[in-house]
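Mods, move this if it's the wrong board.
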Amino acid sequence: MRSLISRFCDLYLKHYFISAMIALAVLGISIFLALRLTINSNQLDLLPQNISVVEEAKKITEMVGGTGFVILSLKYQEEDEGDKLVARARDLKMRGKDTEAEALLKQAASFYAKHHDANVARAHILKEVSDELYVELKKVDEIRAIRHKFSLDFIQKKFLFYWDTADLREAFRRIGIKREEMIARADPFYIELVRRDYRLDLSDILAKYTKIGKKEIIDDYYISPDRKMLVMVLKPTFSMNEIERSKQLIERIKKIVEDKGFASRGVKVGFTGSYVEYVDAYDSITNSLQPTMAIAIIGITIILIVFVRKKRLIAALMVSLIYSIIVTYGVTSLVIGQLNIITSIFGGILAGMGIDFGIQFIFRFREEFWHRQDLMAAIKESIIHTGSAAFFAALTCAAAFIALIASDFRGFSEFGLVSAYGIAITALTMFFLTPLQIVIYAKYSPGLMDYLKETPREKKAEQEEYKAFNIPRLSRIILIVCVCIVPVGVYLAREVSFDHDSRNMLNATAESELLKEELHLRFEIAGDPLAIATDTAEEASQLWEYFEPLSEGMDGMIGQVVSAFAFVPPQERQQQNYAMIQNFRRQNAIIKLAMIPPEYRKYWQRYQTMIAEKPFVFADVPPYVTEQFHSVPTSKIQGYLTFIYPEVDKLYLASDLARLDKLIGEIHYPIVGRHTIYRLASWIPEWSRKTGRRITGDTARKAILGMNLSEKEINGVLDIVNRINERELKALGFFPGVNDVILHKRPFKTLQDLQKETRIARTTGSTLLVAHFTYIVQREAKFIIIGTIILVILVLFISFRKITYCLLVLLPLFVGILFMLGGMTLLGVKVNYFNVAVFPIIIGYGIDSGIFIFMRYLEERSVSASLFRTGAAVAASNLTTIVGFGALAIADHPGIRSMGYLAVIGLTALMVVSLTVLPSLIQYISEKRSKFFDTVPSYMRH
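Not the wrong board. Structure tokens:
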């Protein structure tokens, strides 16, 4: 190996001009390739492409352009006391202080209730602005659909069919009392000694039916109940994962808002929704790239000035560093073709880690040149001695990144791949390009050689200081202190917790996040829904039957489900209500407009319209209602969408996301649904009349399969489905799939048998995409960390060829990790789904210092000499890496920022332990067992 390295150095250093030209050619090609490198902003590509949530997301993107929306909020710039309370509650919610937030919201609700009439009157300004904005946005080609108001004519006409039959019966009873009073008063012979008017009050019943889902049906506009905020929901023509297109669309909308001058009318337009949130998250990362890289480079330069001092040597190291980063970007352009939001941050990290090899080389080169006074010999010896340690150190670093390559999350796997070959490229560059520059400097700048002939300050320090230290005594003190601290570290390490709250991974200062939380509070609904695609209206209907009403397990997790079939009440309810309405109509035939008290006359025409309506089916629902649930006509995939809005407080914790995914990620819903069974149950009297069959059983209702049915009703339904003929079944108006199951799968012994035939639906949306990201991290984190440790041990064994040496170097690593965990507890730093990727890097890099120190000891056979000759280089190397990672601590994105915090704590702990505990252990063992270190790897022998 020595002769091979020697011959290679002779070849490329003696022909330095040709070598420089080759290096410049490689640089030129790398620059060309690096300039072609783009950042893939489609976050959907980072998840495994074969999982259902991704496949369905792509399907829905083709159908309607994606599952999310751009949401515009219109509210007054001037804030009242209620608005301030809501803002404070929002901030508390975002910090997870739900109880305190709820108290403030109650105060805000009380304030708004007192000023409700004034807010209703003032809301016309928001409505005017939304109408004007709607006209302008309709001209934007990238917007497929806009919802800012919803015509309620159809729903208001059919209003009584949406009521539960029991509520309608109670309302008619109360109205009947008032009707009898009015009839009595209309009698010319009526005498009332004491006037007692019956106060007709239906407010408690009407309150149940002021909304369908959570959309008020007393106002066409999408306006909050407090009338302080109006929203416009925009559906772009492309996926929310296409960040650049989203940015262009948002900027265009902002330009429209600015040109219209809404601010001068006191109205503020805000932007949120998944499209805006994705852009903000992406920007918070990309906007951090330049400053973090700049801080890393500046910090590294300062450290080099302190430790290296000679400007030409510093320049050589920085040139090699920048060169290696450019080449790494060029290779990435060839290997992967693009960066993602995670790999885009690796430049600063690579700068901090990669410069280590250069520092180790420079320190050794200066020492070798001082001893030998021969440039070529000094370079060769530096590469041979430091290069072997650097080689294995690079392998341990690469091991950490290689372990990440196995991740199913492409953000981590590509980050591992790029960083692994980036470390290799940087190490090679430092050991070959840096010497090439030194040779060129020596040729054209003789002053450099004069400087190098001077005794290095490290050598002076060694000569003057290290002999004064009582190393044996100092090592024992360090080990005793370490043994005393370890139990404290163990105790503190037990307190390290995993932060499962995704709110802490969001940029809390981003306007879109603040606005999203305010929407949650004002509208009591998640801004962006999850979505399920079904191929036909029949499947959409059956899926709706599965959700309506929500089962006990879903209640509390799902806020509402919205489907085209949400606007079609069950037929059995419509028929029951229709019969009641007709009877009520006959009873009221005697009532004339003149008989009605003045305060009720304004409702007369609406009443006449509602009681004249008949039951309806899905085909009767106007297209403007159903089209928002249907794929666009130009799509290759046609079908219907069902939207699921999770409960707002279930959108953040990983446990809640996992539960939500388990509930609705993959749904097996029966073809014969609950509404169909209820319809059959309501038809039992007609069936008995037509067939003469007597249905027996208990009439007390009980819960079964999410329904309330009596034994008699169950028996009747089973009798019908087992005996009905095809003609009679078709007459009931069920979908063909239901008819096929009943006719071809009977006989049915139980309702479970009737519902045995199912279809599968899969849910997708940003919430579930986050859930699957958490699954991947939780599943892979421990394997990646264990895999890193195994690879590191393997590299150490290959390096030292002796298991006891491996254990010796590993012990300080584990002590350092223990101290890191204790430091995390003291500083309040938690593990999260981003910074967990730093653990294998800390393990892989943290061992490097031990490798350099221990290899130098095997060479010098003196703890003091190896520490004084290598300690400065190790300290400088660690500090540059800390700076490289620490630069991430200023990132806007909290997840990236947390990576910087954790890395700084971990790398600092490992540096201190490597420079204190490891030398102390070596010293202690060498005193007790003098022949313990006699074995030296063959590649280190002269």
